[in-house]
Amino acid sequence: MVNTTIKTTKSQEIFAAAQNLMPGGVSSPVRAFKSVGGQPIVFERVKDAYIWDVDGNQYIDYVGTWGPAICGHAHPEVIAALHEALEKGTSFGAPSVLENILAEMVIDAVPSIEMVRFVNSGTEACMAVLRLMRAFTNREKIIKFEGCYHGHADTFLVKAGSGVATLGLPDSPGVPKSATSGTLTAPYNDLEAVKALFEQNRDEIAGVILEPVVGNAGFITPDAGFLEGLRELTHEHGALLVFDEVMTGFRIAYGGAQEKFGVTPDLTTLGKVIGGGLPVGAYGGRREIMSMIAPSGPVYQAGTLSGNPLAMTAGIKTLELLQRPGTYEYLDQITQKLANGLVQIAQETGHGVCGGHISAMFGLFFTAGPVHNYEDAKKSDMAKFGRFHRGMLERGVYLAPSQFEAGFTSLAHTETDIEQTLAVARDVLSNL
Ligand SMILES: *Cc1c(COP(=O)(O)O)cnc(C)c1O
Q1: Looking at the domain assignment, is residue 271 inside a domain?
Q2: Closest by Cα among 421, 367, 409, 350 to 217
Q3: Helices (H), 291-411
Q4: Residues with CB under 6 A from ligand 1
Q5: What spacing in Å lies between the alpha carbon of 10 and ligand 1's midpoint?
Q6: What angle separates helix 415-430 from helix 382-394, to the nearest 10 degrees?
Q7: Which atom of ligand 1 is found nearest the CA of 124?
Q8: Do 108 and 102 touch, CB atoms closer than 8 A?
């Protein structure tokens, strides 16, 4: 292997200092590179499909700030809209027409959403939707799936994906038993297990929440009939179906997984893309259910910065860009080329892998698969993934530093970027 070890002196200095200042040196756990080994890279700026670190190295980026950067980083039209909005102030804490505009766009796009409430993160959206599920059904138990991530609220920290899976953490200390005693879990893609939970907890289950396509246990797609089956089961038992589309919303199709698969949940959570890189989350659903939210109803939920004008502006402009013709065709084309190429090259170089993509979301596991759920995902060779990650990084390709995260492409990734990435992957995989 050519020694391409990059110069990371400044990154190391800054990260060493950070470790004294913040737990693990980071503001969110997976960023610390714990599961792939080595030091994390400290970044200075982003543009289009690229990121630059503090030592001047350039990378092709497939993290896309964990999903929001679907139009490419620092898109000139988003930046221009933000400049204009900035001149009018950074926060109103009062109604603005920007909220109407983004709300209308979300309602038009997402089949299940008739009314929407904006919050500041995906975690907040999921916390709020949980309270609403329980209030509407007057039931307390919920069903979630192993390896699915719905933010870091107590109730969801049971067999959670993302950083919890990445770090192999047990369900978190500090979460009271009372918060999780009503959280029932089933393996993803296992309708029989869900059926059994409904039988064992008759008239007690408020609803089922899931990532309709999993991105937080690596990339896992729903088997044929799984989403439809959940729709039927929840109907049958008077429970709500909630799609957590914080990752998939406006990414795997403009209307999210519910548009893509033609299954309409009762409630939906959103985040990531709808903030265009600023902090936004949202939840929405049928008018009848959403009307229970304060002040139109009794279910309390509020936020000082919710509906923030800068965040709304970035979201509006991002969705406008996504509405342009050819967006999802292009995203699918380049991501297919990338995902298929990675699998093919890995197989040619003698590695047991499986992977795939839907639109601008992809994944690669170091196991021959197939991967239908979190247990299957855990069969992936983590040490090998770590070496693959480091090899790609040292040759200028930035992948999520965890086997349990999906990869993301954007409108800014060119065919040349993909070809270059595949050439790098061939070099790395041949020498792994
Ligand atoms: C990222 C994510 C969340 C949490 O969103 P934050 O903005 O990080 O709080 C929740 N659910 C899913 C499916 C996510 O991918």
Answers
A1: yes
A2: 367
A3: 309-322, 327-348, 374-377, 382-394
A4: 121-123, 126, 149-151, 211, 215-216, 244, 246-247, 271, 281
A5: 30
A6: 120
A7: 9
A8: no
| CA of 247, closest atom in ligand 1 | 15
Tell me the per-residue pLDDT of 188-202, one tens digit each, with 9 for 90 and over.
Answer: 999 999 999 999 999
pLDDT at position 163 is 75
Per the domain annotation, does 135 fall within a domain?
A: yes
Q: Is the Cβ–Cβ distance between 211 and 269 less than 8 Å?
A: no
* CATH number of the CATH domain containing 272: 3.40.640.10
User: At which of 275, 304, 322 does a domain end?
Assistant: 322
Q: What percentage of residues in the chain have a pLDDT greater than 70?
A: 98
Residues of the chain with pLDDT under 50: 1-3
Domain shared by 14 and 130, yes or no: no
Ligand 1 pocket test: pick from 30, 126, 152, 243 the residue with the most ligand atoms within 8 Å of its Cβ. Answer: 126
The residue whose C-alpha atom lies closest to atom 5 belonging to ligand 1 is: 122
Mutation to probe ligand 1, out of 127, 219, 247 (largest number of atoms < 8 A from CB): 247
Closest approach atom of ligand 1 to CA 215: 15
φ, ψ at 201 (rounded to 5°): -130, 50
CA of residue 150 to ligand 1 center, whole Å: 6
Q: Is residue 2 part of a domain?
A: no
pLDDT at site 113: 98
* CA 237 to ligand 1 centroid distance, Å: 27
Residues 186 and 81 in one domain: yes
pLDDT, one tens digit per residue, over 85-120 is 999 999 999 999 999 999 999 999 999 999 999 999
Locate the ligand 1 atom nearest the alpha carbon of residue 272 and give its number: 7
Among 262, 274, 251, which residue's Cα sits nearest to residue 327?
251
Clarify whether residues 413 and 297 are in a common domain. Answer: no
Q: Are residues 58 and 90 in the same domain?
A: no
DSSP 379: T
Q: How far apart are CA 45 and CA 236, in angstroms?
A: 51
The alpha carbon of 272 and the centre of ligand 1 are apart by a number of angstroms equal to 7
Q: Rounded distance, CA 196 to CA 202, Å?
A: 10
Q: Which residues are catalytic?
A: 149, 244, 272
Q: How far apart are CA 253 and CA 263, in angstroms?
A: 13
Nearest to 241 by CA among 155, 124, 142, 158: 142
Residue-range definition of the domain harbouring residue 245: 76-322
**Contact call for residues 26 and 18 (beta carbons, < 8 A):** yes
Mutate-to-test residue for ligand 1 from 119, 162, 220, 251, highest number of ligand atoms within 8 A of CB: 162
